Automatic annotation (TrEMBL):
<protein>
    <recommendedName>
        <fullName>Spermidine synthase</fullName>
    </recommendedName>
</protein>
<dbReference type="InterPro" id="IPR029063">
    <property type="entry name" value="SAM-dependent_MTases_sf"/>
</dbReference>
<keyword id="KW-0620">Polyamine biosynthesis</keyword>
Length: 252
């Protein structure tokens, strides 16, 4: 089936396209890599497997009341979290054009009372994250791949995360220098033994950090919390749980 272009435009940062194919609506930045996607006929299902992996921190935190999103895309994760959690969502992206696109093509209610959406350059020394945050989810990509955050931005994120908070990021394993650099940056503020989830048959790896070392009891508590989640969130987390790598010193 030939892709149908639903919208095409350019902003100050380059092209933006919304494509529909086989019932899936995807956001692209001028190349075939999908930056966001959803199926309007299956709104409770997260299309991307790495989206599901990024739901794991919500089970690992005892009460993620305030969630930060760095990288908004089409607003798919924001929409899912607003619909299936009681958390407030504090999202930031560089490109203001993405807000109306998220509303037109990805079903996001921009006026939702628990949504705080801002457009800013998180690499700028003037940017300050919303605080405090219990969980931060980082999914920063452009048409060229992963976006490197300055050390100063990572330090500001660390200061914004509440005690017991978690930071999680999506990485591409085929860009290993960027993966190593991201780990170096986060290890300067958080315990270096991150929880790692490799997405099967994809190049995505989702890494989850906190200030204290992860313990087997944290995973046991997380599994118990899964039973308390809404069904769509529980399904996403349960699948992604199988992708978690053993903690250091443990065997499966």
């Amino acid at each position: 089936m030939k892709p149908q272009v639903l919208e095409r435009m350019n902003d100050a940062h380059g092209p933006i396209e919304v494509i529909e194919q086989g019932g899936e609506v995807a956001l692209q930045f001028g190349n075939p890599t999908a930056q966001s996607a959803w199926r309007p006929e299956q709104p409770e299902q997260l299309c991307f497997a790495y989206y599901r992996a990024m739901m794991l921190p919500l089970a690992l935190h005892p009460h993620p009341a305030r969630i930060g999103l760095l990288g908004f895309g089409g607003g798919v994760l924001a929409k899912f979290l607003l619909e299936h959690t009681e958390s407030s969502i504090h999202a930031v992206d560089l490109r203001p054009a993405l807000g109306p696109i998220a509303a037109r093509h990805f079903g996001l209610d921009l006026d939702h009372p628990r949504l705080d959406l801002r457009f800013a350059d998180v690499s700028s020394p003037d940017w300050e994250p919303t605080a405090p945050l219990d969980v931060v989810l980082i999914d920063l990509f452009d048409q060229d791949g992963m976006i490197r955050l300055p050390d100063e931005t990572v330090a500001r994120l660390n200061a914004a995360i509440a005690p017991g908070g978690i930071i999680c990021l999506n990485l591409w394993r085929n860009h290993m220098p960027a993966v190593v650099e991201a780990h170096r940056q986060l290890s300067a503020h958080f315990h270096p033994d991150a929880l790692v989830a490799h997405v099967p048959d994809k190049l995505n790896t989702v890494m989850t950090y906190r200030r204290e070392a992860w313990q087997p009891g944290d995973l046991e508590n997380g599994l118990r919390r899964l039973t308390q989640e809404s069904a769509p969130l529980r399904r996403a987390q349960a699948q992604a749980w199988q992708w978690l790598q053993p903690l250091r010193g443990q065997r499966r």
